[in-house]
Fold:
Amino acid sequence: MSVVAKATYFFRTALHGMWHAPFVHVIAVATIAIAVFSFGLAYGAARWVEALLSSIGGEVQMTVYLAQDTPPEQAEELARALASRAGGGARVVPKEEALRRLSSELGGLGGALEALPVNPLPQSIEVELPAGRRQVGEVRELAEKVRALPMVAAVDYGEEALARLEAVARLLRFGGLAGFAVVVLTTVVIVSATLQLAIYARREEVEIQKLVGATDRFVRVPFLIEGLLQGLLGSALALLGLWLLSWAVGSELAEAFAFLAPAERVLLIDPRRAGELLAVGCGLGLLGSLVAVRRFLRS
Amino acid sequence: MIQMFHVYKAYPGDPPALSDVNLHVRKGEFLFLTGPSGAGKTTLLKLVFCAERATSGQILVGGRNVARIRESGIPYLRRNIGVVFQDFKLLPRRTVADNVAFTLDVLGVPREEARGRVMAMLKRVGLEHKADSFPLKLSGGEQQRVVIARALVNDPAILLADEPTGNLDPALTIEIMDLLSDVNVRGTTVVVATHDASLIARYHKRTVQLERGKVVADQDGVKAARKMASGE
Ligand SMILES: Nc1ncnc2c1ncn2[C@@H]1O[C@H](COP(=O)(O)OP(=O)(O)OP(=O)(O)O)[C@@H](O)[C@H]1O
Ligand SMILES: [Mg+2]
Structure:
């Protein structure tokens, strides 16, 4: 019993099978290709969404409104304390600056403010939150502590916006996972159905193999190899597609999204990602053929 | 080589196909299995290579108890038994040589060695010039010789043939039967199921007759031949 002889026999049989039933194999390969291609796209999309979220998150700020009549020295002191607490920066915005900002934001209507007898706007401190501390829970905790301080009148940190952002991120993550599961399941079902057709087409061959003393494993291996080859072919096609796509539109996309992330080639698949997608494709093919073989080669 | 003790076989819902069969086929023997249609000939052969399991009784093949063999042991039993059955056809999309090599592929015999053995086997059945043809281009008798070559290429101890000449004309029938006798002379134990009385009359071999699942006669070659010739 030679291992090499068996291995060559298995590959010969698998290739012979694919060659003589090209149609079913084309379907399986196309299905795997589409699945892997969409995983590649989804991965690209996930990276944009991530970039989008973190760029929005970058604008999260906490504004601490101080009680009227807080002396400016005390405001400065508090700003320093907040800066060290938040691990970012903090800056005092005096009443006058607040009024100026408001009036410029109001534009033509800004003149109306000058008619006011006293500046009604409070002194405030703007706290920059560093990237690592933008979780809603953490920001809220900080805000509660600050709110309890004696000269603080109110704290505003865009709570709702932050929470919504996080909900969106959660939804996307969940949706992506569900989509992934659906695509995997559908692909495995289709691949295993096509392989069952292939097995059915070769049932006479299988019968004779068993008659002359083939073990179950011996009968199964060529079909598993067929599944593996389908996965390899399918994901290779998908990689080619992704590469072509990023070659065609990648630079435009990168430009379009340049405001989000440092101009990165958004879709271009790096070798590591390509390897992962290849492995996913092979896994899909192998899983499909395992299901088919289990269902069809009993007894 | 093959021993059966009180073998019963019942398919669900039918009266037993075999009942209380006792049979001893010695090593190197040639045996005809005969009887009317439905007598249980095919069933008996199937029990020997485990295509069916006996309902009760013991079956020894080469000293191993087939009735107790595990599912995973069946392939190894079959490597010692060549089978020529009507419903186990040649694969139309493989060449004659590849069809015969099938048996050796399963054993993991390397390609070049297998090719040599296949060609030697094809020579024995007189078909070495057809090695690279496809089965459908062969005559019925030639196809049957390829099937026999496939069954014998790994030198099994036993050859089971079910109606090996069933749909061949008389000249081809004799050609195939001569081939089987030759195989037997070289040491293989051969069991042939047939209801062709002329074969039994011509070949003077031990003949076991089945009727409704029971052994009703077990005669040596001369007696059986005489009986068949007299048309009883
Ligand atoms: N797979 C099966 N399922 C149910 N009954 C079967 C099966 N195979 C055979 N039988 C029954 O068992 C009995 C014996 O059949 P078997 O095929 O062994 O007869 P046979 O002697 O080979 O007949 P023939 O000369 O027509 O080939 C018959 O009554 C048949 O109907
Ligand atoms: Mg029969």
Observations:
- Chain B has eight helices and ten strands.
- The beta strands of chain B are 2-9, 18-25, 30-34, 56-61, 64-65, 81-84, 158-162, 189-193, 206-211, 214-219.
- Residues B 41-42, 162 surround magnesium ion (ligand 2) (CB under 6 Å).
